[in-house]
Design brief:
The structure holds two protein chains of two kinds. By secondary structure, chain A is mainly α. Chain A contains four helices and two strands, in the order H-H-H-H-E-E. The chains are: A mainly alpha, B alpha/beta. At the A-B interface, helix 2 and helix 3 of A face helix 9, helix 10, helix 11, helix 12 and helix 13 of B.
């Protein structure tokens, strides 16, 4: 498993830059403070450095594999089979009223 | 009571003790060992009630093998009316409105849920140090990790707090803690066990499985857990055999594949020695060792650490403070509510993986990372198919080292990921695999991994069982338990 020893991993760092970290954090709806941004930049660079090792393998013409059992998605008849107990499920919400989930106003 | 499920079932059938007494004993043992931090939630009342029901059912003539047996569920399985936290602040107060299929099936088979075990947050980890509820300690050495992410289940079974527990395995999370804690764990073929009600981490990799003292116990539990489920679009329709039926089959002429790449650099030499001794035991049992290659397995780790975070970033997008789970106390607008909720609700490793996943799926990077990883996945799966032309099962180390000290691998995320090098290829291929106790190194347990062909769990369990008839590693209990 030579490809996985620590020395090899460190020498394949591809730094991710801070702008990318901010963009990614926004897409993921995660807040990243100044200090955290540096830590994330380093951590993501290491992890993506690991991912770079995939380039050692030629995969031209190989079909992507999404899932171990390649069976087609199962279909079923379009009939109601499950009655959802709305009140019981909405009781889980942090804020709910009159059958509606409450969130900060979006539209003025 | 440190007996196996199988032995306890015999005792219950003979009337030696009642389920009520068993449950009392289990609860007493759990409460006597809070230092392991193996449990997040205990359901004393529910367990005692279920025990009464089971004892009454037995008096009324019912006698299924799992009737009245206490077990624990990894806190990733929804249990109706009981908190299901997934080891996270995000779900710290979440009470599931329904039972996971695994929970429902085991209860229908007679099992009694005593509580929910601690785990790495959202199943992301190999040491059970990322849980919001604190780390789990290895009962063999409390300064060491139990492995993860099913660390609580592994520690609870190893310490004989419960005779068995459920776990989940996405990159090794049943097998690796089983190895580090000296117990037996099985990850079934992908699709063999329903994922309905099992909080999703990486949907094409996740699988539920039993963790117990022996292969025989795992066989009993798997028979109850496995099967088609309407509610899981990826569940297989293949019939479920009685997995105990072939346990005693002779191993004469069994071809055991030994993977060259799994015995290379990175494997601690004392662990390698224990593996070779275990393989010699198999030769004494009549098996033949065959060298096989998995040439792309060296790239399984990068492949997994692209695919799993990508799937996780999608699965964890649902945690937004709207319909269930944590919501941040203060926020300015909707966007800020999402951001504060997710930043506060998730721990560092989870956020790291969400970030990696989001990155590899984003425009401009999708082809280079995600698509590339999916192609590599096919090559890795193909290696196994070719290897199985020359052998019946594959055997090797489950983990590259024994349990490491708490806090030791927390500086570099990639150093932690290296714990999974032998387990990850199996999840990528969707194959079944087990870890069974195979010795000790410096007083710490070592596990042997067995990998089987798709839907060949019966053979795996047989191969493991014969080893456990000839050895007693699985019967060892840590001092003080």
């Amino acid at each position: 498993m030579v490809a996985c020893n620590e020395l090899t991993l460190r020498s394949r760092w591809r730094p991710v830059n801070k702008e990318e970290i901010e963009k990614i954090a926004h897409l993921a709806r995660l807040g990243v403070s100044e200090q955290e941004r540096d830590a994330y930049t380093e951590d993501l660079s290491r992890i993506l450095g690991l991912a770079q090792q995939m380039n050692a393998v030629v995969t031209d013409g190989v079909e992507p594999m999404t899932h171990p059992d390649e069976a087609a998605l199962r279909w079923r008849a379009d009939v109601v089979t499950l009655e959802a107990d709305r009140d019981r499920l909405m009781a889980l919400a942090p804020q709910a009223r009159h059958g509606l989930y409450l969130v900060p106003k979006v539209v003025d | 009571m440190t007996l196996t499920i199988t032995k306890l079932a015999e005792g219950l059938a003979r009337g030696q003790y009642s389920s009520g007494e068993l449950v009392d004993d289990v609860l007493r043992r759990i409460q006597a060992h809070p230092e392991l931090n193996a449990f997040i939630t205990l359901d004393e009342e529910g367990a005692r009630t279920s025990a009464k029901v089971a004892d009454a059912a037995r008096a009324g003539g019912r006698n299924e093998p799992l009737l009245g047996l206490p077990i624990a569920h990894k806190d990733i399985f929804c249990t109706a009316g009981l908190k299901t936290t997934c080891g996270s602040r995000m779900l710290a107060d979440f009470v599931a409105p329904y039972d996971a299929t695994v929970v429902r099936k085991l209860a229908a088979a007679g099992c009694i849920t005593v509580g929910k075990t601690n785990m790495d947050e959202f199943a992301m980890g190999s040491s059970n140090e990322t849980s919001f509820f604190g780390p789990v300690h290895n009962p063999w050495d409390k300064d060491r990790v139990p492995g993860g992410s099913s660390g609580g289940s592994a520690a609870a079974v190893a310490a004989r707090l419960v005779p068995a527990a459920t776990g989940t395995d996405t990159g090794g999370s049943i097998r690796q803690p089983a190895a580090l804690c000296g117990i037996t764990g099985l990850k079934p073929s992908y699709g063999r066990v329903s994922r309905y009600g099992m909080i999703a981490f990486a949907s094409s990799l996740d699988q539920a499985g039993p963790m117990a003292q022996t292969a025989e116990d795992c066989a009993l539990l798997l028979t109850a857990m496995a099967g088609f489920d309407e509610m899981d679009a990826t569940a297989l329709a293949a019939p479920v055999p009685d997995y105990r039926a072939g346990l005693g089959n002779d191993l004469k002429d069994l071809r055991i594949g030994v993977v060259k790449e799994f015995f290379g650099e990175g494997l601690e030499s004392a662990v390698a020695d224990a593996m070779h001794e275990a393989l010699r035991e198999y030769e004494r049992l009549g098996a033949r060792l065959v060298d096989v290659n998995l040439p792309n397995s060296a790239h399984a780790l990068p492949c997994y650490y692209v695919l799993a975070p990508a799937e996780a970033s999608s699965n964890l997008a649902r945690y937004d403070g709207v319909r269930y789970g944590y919501r941040a106390p203060d926020y300015s607008d909707l966007e800020d509510m999402y951001k504060q909720t997710r930043t506060q609700g998730f721990g560092a490793e989870v956020k790291r993986r969400i970030m990696v996943g989001t990155y590899v799926l984003s425009a401009g990077y999708y082809d280079a990372y995600y698509l590339k990883a999916q192609k590599l996945r096919r090559l890795i799966a193909g290696d196994f198919t070719r290897a199985f032309q020359h052998c019946d099962v594959i055997a090797g180390p489950t983990a590259p080292s024994i349990a490491f000290a708490l806090g030791m691998k927390n500086d570099d995320p990639v150093a932690m990921y290296l714990n999974d090098i032998y387990t990850i290829p199996v999840n990528l291929a969707g194959l079944p695999a087990m870890s069974l106790p195979a010795g000790f190194v410096s007083g710490a347990p070592v596990g042997l991994q067995l990998i089987g062909q798709y839907l060949d769990e019966a053979r795996l369990l047989n191969v493991a069982h014969k080893f456990q008839e000839a050895t007693d590693w699985h019967a060892r209990v840590p001092v003080g338990f």
